[in-house]
Amino acid sequence: MHIWVDADACPKVIKEILFRASQRLSISVTLVANQGISVPASSLIRAIQVPAGYDVADNYIVQQLKAGDLVITADIPLAAEVLEKKAHALNPRGELYTENNIKERLMMRDFMSDLRSSGVQTGGPAALNQKDRQAFGNALDRFLARHLK
């Protein structure tokens, strides 16, 4: 298994949790972003910088991942593509995207986009807090315990 990170918008604290898990469990982690990202010196952790552009990082991840890999992303359309490739997607707040919830998330995303395009101020997601960090760490641990056998 390989962990891919949609790193442009991934909070630093989530990356740090992933770095610790990588070292503890000897799992390869690749961060993909449009900008340079610093990562700890480790043969298990690498950063890939892709050219700037709409969905360039997402497309790179989808092209590279294999069935069974894990992708860390808050990008719902990317999560849907990941699931289509029989891989797994986890968001930085600890929610595992599944075949059962991805369609609902896509519909809600499209609905909110329609609201914004009609002038309604919807605001963005709340800042990541300690509860979210803990939820992510717990979800990652549960996922890895199930899939690393």
TrEMBL record:
Domain of life assignment: Bacteria
Pfam families per record: DUF188
Cross-referenced PANTHER family: UPF0178 PROTEIN YAII (PTHR35146)
Family: Belongs to the UPF0178 family.
Protein name per the record: UPF0178 protein H4O21_01950
